Write a sequence for this structure.
């Protein structure tokens, strides 16, 4: 219904098609893979006009070729170091409420949800926004495992040295032999979701679909919540400290 053809190279308003990737606008180079008009379903019928415009797959290939292997593994190491502490914020929720009903809800529902999302959040962000910085799906899962293990160590130190130092000798075996491994396993499951997002984008050469990670994150939360529920019931029964 327009009086003249669209200029795909300069369209930038919300009512227009996205600008070309690679175009310089206000001194900013639109070289992010998601800036490409080529992958827009709404303009796919304009095949001839889009010929020569780099799509997500083209730009992703360029980024992959320009990223050295050492940078990918450095990213993995930094994620391991940062992701564990990042998820510790969720641990504070489980210490609130004492033995009240709200406290049990925090331990069984809110805490696991916040912790598992927190542990995998940065890894998932990289899988979606910077997939060329991740070396492989296996590396992503191992990163999740290491981040979860680090989280478990930090949480145990908080519990044994800060929250309950007077009961440290009593609860330490349970925390190190059960709780810490659970965190590593749950984070590995959530990281499988991030790996699926990454692998899907690498295979299809299209923008990552974060929704693919949802079932794995839900599974990690359910595992964590079930563990906390069992621990709460056994603790109330006096079976474990």
């Amino acid at each position: 219904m327009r009086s003249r053809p669209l200029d795909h190279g300069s369209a930038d308003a919300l009512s227009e098609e996205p600008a070309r990737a690679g175009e310089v606008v206000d001194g900013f180079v639109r070289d992010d893979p998601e800036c490409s008009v080529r992958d827009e379903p709404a303009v796919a019928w304009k095949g001839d006009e889009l010929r020569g415009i780099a799509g997500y797959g083209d730009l992703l290939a360029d980024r992959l070729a320009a990223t050295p292997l050492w940078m990918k593994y450095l990213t993995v190491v930094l994620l391991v170091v940062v992701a564990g502490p990042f998820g510790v914020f969720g641990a504070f929720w489980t210490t609130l409420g004492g033995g009240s009903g709200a406290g049990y809800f925090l331990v069984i529902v809110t805490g696991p949800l916040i912790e598992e999302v927190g542990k995998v959040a940065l890894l998932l962000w990289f899988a979606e926004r910077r997939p060329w910085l991740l070396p492989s799906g296996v590396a992503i899962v191992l990163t999740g495992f290491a981040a979860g293990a680090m989280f478990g160590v930090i949480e145990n130190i908080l519990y044994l040295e800060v929250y309950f130092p007077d009961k440290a000798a009593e609860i330490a075996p349970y925390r190190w032999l059960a709780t810490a491994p659970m965190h590593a396993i749950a984070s590995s499951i959530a990281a499988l979701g991030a790996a699926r997002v990454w692998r899907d984008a690498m295979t299809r050469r299209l923008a990552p679909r974060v929704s693919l990670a949802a079932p794995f994150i839900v599974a990690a939360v359910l595992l964590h919540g079930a563990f906390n529920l069992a621990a709460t019931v056994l603790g109330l029964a006096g079976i474990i400290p």
Strands lie at 24-25, 28-29. Helices lie at 47-50, 56-66, 69-87, 101-129, 137-163, 168-204, 214-236.
